[in-house]
Design goal:
- This protein has 608 residues and is of the alpha/beta class.
- Helices cover 34% and strands 23% of the residues.
- Strands 3-2-4-1-10-9-11-14 form an 8-stranded antiparallel sheet, covered by helices on one side.
- Helix 7 runs parallel beside helix 13, helix 9 packs parallel to helix 13 and helix 9 runs antiparallel to helix 17.
- The model has no long low-confidence stretch (mean pLDDT 94).
- Bound molecules: 2-deoxy-2-amino glucitol-6-phosphate.
- The site of 2-deoxy-2-amino glucitol-6-phosphate (AGP) has 16 residues, from helix 9.
Length: 608
């Protein structure tokens, strides 16, 4: 979603701001803008399209000034055009604002402003906020922002600058991420650590309902009601290398290839093979409650929901605790029943997804214990849970989630084993799973080495516009995730479903033009999946299979087989997804798609 970068300090702001928003390109955007403040006032330039268009537009301008802001917009209210791009100015032209989030009561505020003689120029919800700030401005920008926010309903991460108070940035947050990078004589306010890391590793995380006033040699933090808040300056667990391509053509490919290391890091200190146990420090204090819990509810969106579905299978299978996975966007509005002893687990890469945050709050308000399975350290969801487990897979920049998905599945697997062993899982059974988990990074690496073979298959099928992905049991969530990967980056229509469901309708779609991807590893439902493959072949469908190494039968049925090493059934999802990630990646590249910035998508969905 929208990206925010604001700078105040002793250096020229322009290059820092442009570099900053480029680091946020991966979040998804359709227009970009910049405002720089100098003795002559505010200079704003903005346009629809890529940051490169903005750079060309200002290439002959100096835009000097040591304080400013920049923004990448992902349109919600109003077309992605020049006027709707941020920064927005108030009617006097003295105040500029950038915003991430949604002002829900913007129509009412627009009417109010009109009654006051203030006309909005854009179609955005954001502009009413800056006009409101301008309306309340009486020489104190902090007070004006506070007054405006008290009239606003919705979500926001904002930065505001004012030509009457040069060098000062006002930042405020509610429901959208905002971080302040603390340098030596300079500060960067940003919606994402990626825009900060090049300059400083010292940060302050603003919480919802907090504001900051930042100037070149100091800052203060407070609530929206002006009560002072003391914030700790924390260390960013991120390096520049983590967010650069490192020789790969795309972040998505880099992140797929990183999965052996990512899973090793995720398991480090947690899979204790010698002692035969799972160590989850983040859950230690709640271990008794978790073992005795009556029900788990896992809530998430998109890919994280697919990981959550696997969580449901794992928790019921390994820990024997009733578990449901819920789309966060549905859960939050349907007045769910939360019995005493229910544990809700929010799964989120970014830790900022609005629907997941809201679902978590709904569950907490109803008395649930709230756990987080999150990748981004210090993110909102991570901070709003009672306990949690970080993925530790490193930053994920590609919009299509790959290594974070694997991290989510891995953490949920470790949780299921951790709780399962405290209930009914025997030590030898646990030990078998631990041994298998220890081999996971090497097994994933072996699959990534098949990338060229997988590309050849993608080449053959890349023009097919409809695909099916089928699996049973633990392979069903993998079918859903494989299909999502393909559709979000290649724009091919793909559906995942339980293999047995095919005959209840979708079988009507099967023709000789339809690629059908079966996840058909050796497991308890293998024979049944083979029957489903036969059903597809009988209708001349073209079968691609993910199968277990050494399976000779499947090669006689499928046109192409991607072999994966064997693992105990509950752990198979940790490897079966890898060839499907590569298949989607190669298909998208071969179709000329912008893999890391797919159309209409945002990395972190911070609107409803
Ligand atoms: C993943 O490939 C998707 N782009 C998307 O479904 C994503 O998983 C979803 O928006 C949830 O994001 P989160 O994990 O950051 O909460």
């Amino acid at each position: 979603m929208c990206g925010i970068v604001a700078y105040t300090g002793f250096r020229q702001a322009r290059p820092i701001l442009l570099e900053g928003i480029k680091r946020l390109e991966y979040r998804g955007y359709d227009s970009a803008g910049i405002a720089v403040l100098n003795g002559g006032g505010l200079h704003v330039r903005k346009n629809a399209g890529r940051i490169s268009v903005l750079e060309s537009a200002i290439s002959n301008e100096e835009l000097l000034g040591t304080c400013g802001m920049a923004h990448t917009r992902w349109a919600t209210h109003g077309q992605p055009n020049d006027e709707n791009a941020h920064p927005h100015l108030d009617a006097s032209g003295r105040i500029a604002l950038v915003h991430n989030g949604i002002i829900e009561n913007y129509q009412a505020l627009r009417t109010y402003l009109k009654q006051q003689g203030i006309e909005c120029r854009s179609d955005t919800d954001t502009e009413v906020l800056v006009q409101l700030v301008g309306h309340f401005y009486k020489g104190d920008i902090e007070a004006a922002v506070r007054a405006a926010l008290s009239d606003v309903r919705g979500t926001y991460g904002i930065a505001v600058i004012c030509s009457e108070e040069p060098g000062k940035i006002i930042a405020a947050k509610k429901g959208s991420p905002l971080i302040i990078g603390v340098g030596d004589g300079e500060y960067i306010v940003a919606s994402d650590a990626a825009a900060i890391i090049q300059h400083t590793a010292q940060v302050i995380y603003l919480s919802d309902g907090e504001m900051a006033s930042v100037w070149d040699d100091g800052f203060k933090t407070m609530t929206l009601d002006a009560a002072p808040v003391t914030k700790e300056v924390e260390e960013l667990g991120l390096t520049l290398e983590d967010i650069e391509l490192g020789g790969h053509a795309h972040f998505m490919l880099k992140e797929i290839m990183e999965q052996p290391d990512a899973t090793a890091n995720c398991m480090r200190g947690r899979v204790d093979l010698m002692e035969g146990r799972i160590v989850l420090g983040g859950l230690a204090e709640l271990a008794r409650e978790l073992v005795q819990t009556k029900r788990f509810i896992i809530t998430a969106c998109g890919t994280a929901w697919h990981a959550g579905l696997l969580g449901e299978y794992l928790f019921e299978d390994l820990a024997h605790i009733p578990t449901e996975v819920e789309y966060a966007s549905e859960f939050r509005y349907r007045n769910p029943i939360i019995e005493q002893g229910t544990v809700v687990i929010a799964v989120s890469q970014s830790g900022e997804t609005t629907d997941t945050q809201a679902a978590l709050r709904e569950a907490r308000d109803k008395g649930a214990i709230a756990l987080g399975v999150v990748n981004v350290v210090g993110s909102t969801i991570a901070r709003e849970t009672d306990a949690g487990i970080y993925l530790h897979v490193g930053p994920e920049i590609g919009v299509a989630s790959t290594k974070a998905y694997l991290g989510q599945v891995l953490v949920l697997t470790m949780m299921a084993l951790y709780i399962g062993r405290r209930r009914h899982l025997s030590q030898p059974a646990l030990q078998d799973h631990l041994t298998a988990l220890a081999s996971l990074p090497d097994k994933i690496a072996a699959i990534t080495r098949q990338s060229d073979d997988i590309r050849r298959v993608a080449e053959e099928f890349k023009d097919a516009e409809n695909w099916l992905y089928l699996g049973r049991g633990y392979n069903y969530p993998t079918a859903l995730e494989g299909a999502l990967k393909l559709k979000e980056i290649s724009y091919i229509h793909a559906e995942g479903m339980p293999a047995a469901e095919m005959k209840h309708g979708p079988i009507a779609l099967i023709t000789e033009d339809m690629p059908v991807v079966f996840i058909a590893t050796k497991n308890s439902q293998y024979e049944k999946v083979i029957s489903n493959i036969q059903e597809v072949l009988a209708r001349k469908g073209r079968v691609i299979a993910v199968a277990t190494e050494g399976d000779t039968e499947i090669a006689n049925l499928a046109e192409h087989v991607f072999y994966v090493p064997d693992l105990p059934e509950p752990l198979q999802p940790l490897i079966t997804i890898v060839p499907l990630q590569l298949l989607a990646y190669h298909a998208a590249v071969l179709r000329g798609c912008d893999v890391d910035k797919p159309r209409n998508l945002a990395k972190s969905v911070t609107v409803e």
